[in-house]
Design brief:
42% of the residues lie in helices and 25% in strands. The chain is globular. The protein has one domain: Beta-carbonic Anhydrase, Chain A (3-Layer(aba) Sandwich), CATH 3.40.1050. α2 crosses α4. The chain is an alpha/beta fold.
Length: 124
């Protein structure tokens, strides 16, 4: 059986391949369900229940409950147009987002990461 993971990731095309590569190389993942939004770390960290938050949750639910994803990565990244803030704020938002996702899917491993200016994935 092929293994899935989910990634709550920015829509920025520069971050897609590094995230997929990271998950495949470090967690023996075959497929990654990409759940993209502009600045998802801010959305999940700061917004109360909203259409966008509920949409992310619904898409994660499909990945976890239909595809069997046991790993959920959530990221912030350098030079984000959807969330133009400093690295430290992104890290806090990403950690808060990871905590929120963990409440939704307690059996999943939730991995918060930072994607740096060289488009490398760094666990936080």
């Amino acid at each position: 059986m092929k293994a899935f993971a989910a990634a709550v990731n920015c829509m920025d095309g520069r971050v897609q391949e590094p995230v997929i590569k990271y998950l495949k190389e470090n967690f023996e993942i075959d497929y990654v369900d990409m759940i993209t939004e502009p600045g998802p770390d801010r959305i999940l960290s700061e917004e109360q229940e909203s259409i966008r938050v509920n949409s992310i949750k619904q898409r994660l639910d499909i990945s976890v409950n239909k595809h069997g994803s046991k790993i959920i990565l959530v990221s912030g990244h350098d030079d984000c147009a959807g969330n133009p803030t400093d690295k430290e704020t992104h890290i806090v938002q990403t950690l808060n987002s990871a905590a929120r996702i963990k409440k939704w899917f307690p059996s999943a491993e939730v991995i918060p990461v930072w994607i740096n200016s060289d488009w490398e994935v760094e666990p936080v």
